[in-house]
Each structure stands twice: as C-alpha cells, then as structure tokens.
Amino acid sequence: MMKTRLITLLLVAGMLTACNNKETNNQTSNNNMKTTLQLTEEWDKTFPKSDKVDHKKVTFHNRYGIELAADMYTPKNAEGKLAAIAVSGPFGAVKEQSSGLYAQHMAERGYLTIAFDPSFTGESGGEPRRMASPDINTEDFLAAVDFLSVQDNVDPERIGIIGICGFGGMAVNAAALDPRIKATVASTMYDMSKVNVEGYFKSEDTPQQRMEKRKALAAQRTADYKAGSYQRAGGVIDPLPEDAPWFVKDYHAYYKTKRGYHKRSGNSNDGWNTIGCQSFLNQPLLAWAQEIENPVLLIHGEKAHSRYFSEYAFEKMTGIHVEGESKVVSNKELLIIPGASHVDLYDDEAGVIPYDKMDSFFKENLK
Asked: Are the C-beta atoms of residues 238 and 257 closer than 8 Å to each other?
C-alpha cells in the first residue's frame, strides 16, 4: 500500500514539474516551424481592398503543431509598437469573408490586425479537413496571441481579439484562459456547445434527445471509418425552400450569393464533416466565463435569432439576466444593435457593424 502511494506521489510530482518547471525545461526547437502551406497571393476577398492599409499573408503554429494561415493588415506609414487584434469567424467561414473585413476596418483605425483561418479550415493546416474542436479552435486564438506577441512592431501588452459568430464563443473561452488577451469582442456570437447540447431555443434539451444525437454520431463514425472518408453535413441549404426559417434565408443571402460566397468556405459549399462538432456535446465553452478579469464587449443584433447566446454569455460573466437591451456591468458590456439581424453583422451591407464602438473599446483597454 505504501509503495503504491509513493509511486502515485512521484507520478504527480513529475507531472507538476513538467508543467511548472520553467527554468530547467528546454524549449522545443522552432526549426520545424517553416511554412508548408500553399497560400494564394491574389486578392480573393469578398470585400474591396483598402488603400489605407498594407496587406500580406503570414503563417503561425498552434501548440498542436497545426500551421495557421492569416492575412495581416497594417496601417500605412505606421510607426512604433502598435496595439494588435486577432480576428476569426464565423464558424464555417474563412478569412476572406467577415473576419478579414473586420480586420481591415480595425487596421484602418490604427491597429495591426490578423484575420486567420482556424485549424482544419480554409488555407490553414490540419487533417482531416472540416473538423471542429472547442479545445483546438480556442487554442487557435491563443496561438494568434503567441504570434502577435513576438512581432517587432507590436506591443505585447496591448493585444485584443475579435470572434465572430461561432468564434465569438471561442474568443470568450480564450479570454477566460489567457490573461494576455487584454480585451475581447464577440460579435453576433454563437455558443457552439450550447446549440449542440440544447438545439436552438432548447428545442432538443432532453436526455433522450441528446442520446439520439450521440447514437447518430456514433453510427456515423463507424460508417466513416468503414468508408475511409468523412461524410459532409452540407453547408447552407441551396436551393432555398420557400418555407425555410427566416434566419436560414438570412444565411443564404450571405453565403450563397455574390455578397459573401467564397470557394473555400464550408458554409458556402458542402459544410462540416457530419461528426465534426461531436465534442461540443460534452465540452461547455463558457464554463469559466465568470472569471474573466479583462474587458469583454458582446455585440448582437436586436432581431438576430442568436441574440440569446450573447445574453447568456453576459449573464455567465456578470450574473445579470437581460433580454433585448444593452447593458454595462463593470468592464463587461452587452451592446444590442437596433433592428439588426444575425448576418447584418457579417458585412457592411446593412451598415450596422459598430466599428467606431469597437475602436473606442480597444483604445480604452489596449493602452
């Protein structure tokens, strides 16, 4: 008995030493961090190029060794060390869509920004393609902070992030994990754990319904393994049925038209792998949102079907329940955009994305 207990203590001590000994552990060499990605050099965004910023492609690695592709936007004639912002989302989109648009707008306002493709998506690495992970996709934000922190023209004490749609939830999760993130914006946010566990508006929120999902995903895993390939779940439905819910029509108007279509976007084409979101069923993204000390700004449209995700996140962080109204509690803010839908915050079509508000938020908190 004593011997078993001693072995256990030694194992625990070894694990703690491995995690905490910063003085003696050798760093892993970065010699294998050379880019292997094939990046397009043409301007293939869904938005026009700004003449107020410089643009270039960059790559960086997350802690799983997956190489991520990003567009870097730098204010023209910028001098000194800049505040920086990493942007990603929506869930199933690519950096040539909403995240790049946000990044370019914020660069016009004086920030060095990157819009990155998450792991398994777009021009970024990771196999198999079109998978998602609450852990790895949160890590993608942390890796973006790693990258920005070592740029010669970035002040590592002035880094923020923006997550859009499903990556809004990932951004809040990253903020709960990494205090280097000094300010966080989540725009038109989805909580991917909540929607997978409960369905929309808790329409699938019983143990029996969750078990049916688990059984279906388990069966699909067997089928995929047997086939040697992954079944795709399909992107935004096309052609659009006349009786489609209005928010599906909202998505279609962006992802399936010239307005927002992109050839590398899963939402514009054949979507995620059917089993791609399985791990969201038992890994809640916002478990520690209440312990975020740094400022968070949640932005959502008044008429968005998804508004309740931001309201839920705000309640998790502050303990205050609100519905359909803007609210500020300490350094956490919920901003509701009157009349705006979910997709109105994807691009400049409706002209309602509050870039100036985000600018003032970051200027106040990245100083």
From this structure: no
